[in-house]
């Protein structure tokens, strides 16, 4: 595989990472995430092409996943936001597009004891794994996990 193409997909209310509720989600941005990937992976990061997409719409996320299949994207890092807990449609799409996916959450969804629904993931069964609770570092860890999986 010449270059590892990874799509970072963000769902509703995640267009303002770094500004939205920093007490829950932190103050780092997606630009910071790319710097963390480079630091975490060293020279291996040069072989990774990262594309970002964010949509507040479930249909927009599904359309982008289907487009990723057509583009030959090698892996998806996906923070579906609240759709993680409610969207059978996204889980169904992940099941058929056959692209390795790592589910990501900035906060630890299992620590959200005030809202038990937020402790569940409908998408998780269609993913290689779930990384949660490490802020923006969760994305960088997911990129590394996908890269390692694709080159195993």
Word description of this protein:
- It is a single chain.
- With 152 residues, the chain is α/β, with parallel strands linked by helices.
- It has one domain: Dehydroquinase, class II (Rossmann fold, 3-Layer(aba) Sandwich), CATH 3.40.50.9100.
- 36% of the residues lie in helices and 18% in strands.
- The protein has 5 helices and 5 strands.
- A 5-stranded parallel β-sheet has the order 2-1-3-4-5, with helices on both faces.
- Helix 2 packs across helix 5 and helix 3 packs parallel to helix 4.
- The chain is globular and about 45 Å long.
- The N and C termini lie close together (11 Å).
Average pLDDT rating: 89
- How many structural domains does the protein architecture include? 1
Give the structural class: alpha/beta
Number of strands: 5
CATH class designation: Alpha Beta
Helix content: 25-40%
Q: What is the CATH homology-level superfamily?
A: Dehydroquinase, class II
Q: Total helix count? A: 5
CATH architecture: 3-Layer(aba) Sandwich
Strand content: 15-25%
Strands of the widest sheet, in order across it, are 2-1-3-4-5
CATH topology: Rossmann fold
Biggest sheet, in brief?
5 strands, parallel
Q: Estimate the global geometry from the Cα principal axes.
A: globular
Q: State the end-to-end CA separation.
A: 11 Å
Radius of gyration (CA) equals 14 Å
Provide the low-confidence segments as ranges.
Answer: none
Helix-strand pattern, N to C? EHHEHEHEEH
């Amino acid at each position: 595989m010449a270059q590892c193409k990874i799509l970072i997909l963000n769902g509703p209310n995640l267009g303002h990472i770094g500004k939205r509720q920093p007490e829950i989600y932190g103050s780092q941005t997606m630009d910071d995430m790319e710097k963390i990937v480079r630091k975490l992976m060293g020279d291996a990061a040069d072989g990774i092409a990262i594309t970002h997409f964010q949509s507040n719409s479930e249909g927009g996320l599904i359309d982008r996943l289907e487009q990723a299949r057509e583009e030959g994207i090698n892996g998806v890092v996906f923070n579906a936001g609240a759709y993680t807990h409610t969207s059978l449609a996204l889980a169904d799409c992940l099941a058929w597009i056959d692209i390795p996916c790592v589910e990501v959450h900035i906060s630890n969804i299992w620590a959200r004891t005030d809202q038990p629904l937020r402790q569940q993931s409908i998408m998780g069964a269609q993913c290689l794994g779930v990384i949660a609770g490490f802020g923006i570092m969760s994305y960088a860890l997911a990129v590394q996990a996908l890269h390692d999986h694709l080159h195993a």
